[in-house]
């Protein structure tokens, strides 16, 4: 019964799908993408200029999707301009051909982006956190939506490489946190993550305990980290230094499969992230 209902919702979504030209490619829009794991949300798929069913593409999944392509839907009125940057990098032959999947966040953004593990430590941290006390962390359910519902749809509808060495994930702030978690939880699905201004202090930095328990194989995964020095980003350096030590100890090699950058003066907002978006794009999608 549940499977039949989901099939119905899937077909309904396809009927409701629409597309728009960005000037640098095409964006396919799927309103209220259905899920058995989390609440529905908008999903947008950017197809680069010259997209063809006759060749294969990498896929980059991005969180906070309303901020990615359109300033009218973006928080604070500034978009990441990912479509323009991808098109420019493709034109200069700087990256591999890629499809970008922008997943809008829901009203439960913190609950979906806050890693579930280590479970006991997360539960304890929630008991004493004044801002998020009483909330239920559902990142594992959100990742099931990505892995078992959204990715199969994307791979069915578009001409994609389906292997982890062509499948990437990116986000900023809490989106950076869930991107790192996604690769750690599903290393057989995602080949790497770009974690921009990662909000490591969430619940007093509890997720670092999980990272200390092990990282994916450095021979087959890569990670990009960065942060600024202004505003909220000014808190991140000590946490990022601890993370960098973990990656170095795990055998990751600087500028090969791991990099961590600091942008002096950069703050915690879409406008500043847009200014450096080409760095993680080139790192994950380099030829």
Helix content: 25-40%
Tally of DSSP helical segments:
10
CATH topology: Rossmann fold
**Percent range for β-strand residues:** 15-25%
Oligomer: single chain
| Structural Rg | 18 Å
In CATH, what is the homologous superfamily? Alpha/Beta hydrolase fold, catalytic domain
Description:
The chain is of the alpha/beta class. The protein has a single domain (58-284), classed as 3-Layer(aba) Sandwich (Rossmann fold). It contains 10 helices and 9 strands. The protein has a 9-stranded mixed β-sheet, sandwiched between helices. It starts with a helix and ends with a helix. The mean pLDDT is 93.
Question: Short summary of the structure?
Answer:
With 287 residues, this protein is an alpha/beta fold. It has ten helices and nine strands. The chain has one domain (58-284): Alpha/Beta hydrolase fold, catalytic domain (Rossmann fold, 3-Layer(aba) Sandwich), CATH 3.40.50.1820.
Labels describing this entry:
9 strands, alpha/beta, 10 helices, nine-stranded mixed β-sheet, 287 residues
SSE topology sketch:
Layout: H1 2-16, E1 18-21, E2 26-33, E3 41-47, E4 58-62, H2 82-91, E5 98-103, H3 109-113, H4 119-128, H5 139-157, E6 167-172, H6 174-185, E7 192-196, H7 207-211, E8 222-228, H8 237-249, E9 258-263, H9 270-275, H10 278-284
Parallel strand pairs: 4-5, 4-6, 6-7, 7-8, 8-9
Antiparallel strand pairs: 1-2, 2-3, 3-5
């Amino acid at each position: 019964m549940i499977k039949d209902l989901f099939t119905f919702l899937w077909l309904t979504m396809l009927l409701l799908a629409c597309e728009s030209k960005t000037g640098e490619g095409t964006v396919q829009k799927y309103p209220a993408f259905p899920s058995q794991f989390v609440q529905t949300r908008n999903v947008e798929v950017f197809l680069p200029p010259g997209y063809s069913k006759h060749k294969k593409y990498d896929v980059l999944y991005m969180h906070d999707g309303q901020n990615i392509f359109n300033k009218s839907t973006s928080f604070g009125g500034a978009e990441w301009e990912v479509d323009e940057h991808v098109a420019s990098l493709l034109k200069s032959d700087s990256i591999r051909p890629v499809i970008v999947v922008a997943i809008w966040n829901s009203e439960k953004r913190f609950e979906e982006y806050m890693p579930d593990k280590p479970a006991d430590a997360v539960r304890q941290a929630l008991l004493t956190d004044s801002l998020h006390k009483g909330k239920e962390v559902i990142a594992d359910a959100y990742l099931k939506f990505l892995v078992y519902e959204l990715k199969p749809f994307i791979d069915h509808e578009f001409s994609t490489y389906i292997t982890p060495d062509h499948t990437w994930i990116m986000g900023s702030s809490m989106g950076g946190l869930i991107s790192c978690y996604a690769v750690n939880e599903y290393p057989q699905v995602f080949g790497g993550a770009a974690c921009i201004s990662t909000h490591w202090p969430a619940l007093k930095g509890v997720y670092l305990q999980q990272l200390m328990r092990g990282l994916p194989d450095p021979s087959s995964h890569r990670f990009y980290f960065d942060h600024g020095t202004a505003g909220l980003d000014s808190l991140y350096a000590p946490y990022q230094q601890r993370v960098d030590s973990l990656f170095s100890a795990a055998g990751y090699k600087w500028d090969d499969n791991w990099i961590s950058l600091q942008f002096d003066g950069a703050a915690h907002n879409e406008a500043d992230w847009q200014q450096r978006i080409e760095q993680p794009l080139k790192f994950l999608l380099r030829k």
